[in-house]
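#struct-help
A.M.: can someone run this one for me? Single chain, 98 residues.
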Amino acid sequence: MPAAVLADGSEVPADTVVVGVGMEYIGYHHPGSYDEVVYRGDLDEREFCALWLAGGVLQASMNVNVWDVVSAATAVIGRPVDAAKLADPDVPLADVAS
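D.P.: on it. Structure tokens below:
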């Protein structure tokens, strides 16, 4: 069983060391408890946030090589959000709640 499945669908074994990648995860999403994952940022450059929604409510956020977003994301977790605004990195996280 992999330790993680990346955004591109590839699996990362438990003993993999990823160099040059920083990640922070906040909130919680139980496997199968979400119905949408929104990506905010640039996947190809490995600078993005993955955000898990259930019924339009933000459940969790993982930022990859994106810093200074934890406080803003924490304030929105548990609230209904506009997924289109959430996906747009030009829209401040404080403005994505619907």
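A.M.: thanks! The first strand starts at residue 4 and ends at 5.
D.P.: also worth noting: The chain has two helices and six strands.
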